[in-house]
Amino acid sequence: MHPFRAAVEKDDLAAVEAMLAEDVVFTSPVVFKPYAGRAITAAILRGAKRVFEDFRYVREITGADGRDHALVFEARVGDRAITGCDFLHVDEEGRIDDFMVMVRPLSAAQALAAAMGAEFDRIAQEAAAGA
Question: Are 70 and 60 in contact (CB under 8 A)?
């Protein structure tokens, strides 16, 4: 089991943040432009934790070189069931330097966009405090 998955499943957000490289790039499933940096990525992940209900990883796939990981998850956003995947790449030090999320179906992605949009002022404040 990837340490990121283990930390998420233990609800250890401090450990999750510690696994992020300072220059991590986070690509959202609902926003065009990626976010750069540990503070904003950690704040987005905390926001997602508040938005997702019944979140659980259901599958894990690791690339041959051990630096690429796909963590498939299921959750709910309001009344919408969502399936998604966290694509992680780790740097030479084992820290996550690239984090991309994809979700389906479209109606769940739209619900996620609305819910995260409602969280974004708080996310921005948390990122500013953590920077």
Answer: yes
The pLDDT confidence band at residue 2, using thresholds 50, 70 and 90, is confident
Name residue, tokens 């490289």.
Answer: 21
pLDDT of residue 27: 97
Closest CA to 45 of 73, 16, 72, 23: 16
CATH T-level fold of 3-130: Nuclear Transport Factor 2; Chain: A, (3.10.450)
Cα gap 81→75, rounded to integer Å = 6
Predicted confidence (pLDDT) per residue in 49-101, tens digit: 999 999 999 999 999 999 999 999 999 999 999 999 999 999 999 999 999 99
One-letter amino acid of 30: V
Exposure class string for 78-92: b at 16+ Cβ within 10 A, else e? eeeebebbbbbbbee
Q: Which of 116, 88, 121 is CA-nearest to residue 3?
A: 88
Q: Where are the domains of the chain?
A: 3-130
